[in-house]
Amino acid sequence: MAKTKVRGESSRAIRDYFSKNPAATGQEVVEGLKAKGMTVTVGLVYNVKAYDAKKKSKKKAAKAAAKAGATATKADATSTNGATTGTKADAIRSVAKSLPKPFRPRDVRVELAKQGIDATTTFIGKVLRSAGMKRKRRRKAAAGNGAPAVANNSLNINDLVAAKKVVEQVGSVEKVREALVALGRLG
Predict the structure, then answer these.
(1) pTM listed for this prediction
(2) Biggest distance spanned by C-alpha atoms of the chain
(3) Domain ranges of the chain
(4) What is the pLDDT of residue 57?
(5) First to last CA, the chain
């Protein structure tokens, strides 16, 4: 009969090992638990360690806020880079509103960097799109039915009438094209 595993058993064992050996490396934890008959990976050890460190820092910040007499909320929380302006998304939206209107995410990123906030241009673009500040682009003018665009609209109706007469004299559009290619080769 197979041994059933209790959910979180490996994580608890890793935490217990770290409580007894706080300076242990990931490989030492794996080997120590292997000696006790438990198999864990180094990745799991580091994930548990990082999760616990993050949880510990949140508790420490909450205690400091309670000591100062303020309640810690998501909007008032200190960000990972030390800025106390609220969330990064709030900072992005406020900077975007203050910039002159044709701006790009990289312009917002520069302004945020001046404030000490680090955000990727991809994240900034997503926040701006969700805030309804997406960039409007011009569409290219349709070239018609596959015909090449004519520079500066240099053809007029008289040119087209003359071309039609040439086609009638030569016999077909294909023959006119061949004649033009040959004329181009001559010179």
Answers:
(1) 0.34
(2) 100
(3) 9-67, 88-130, 156-186
(4) 82
(5) 91
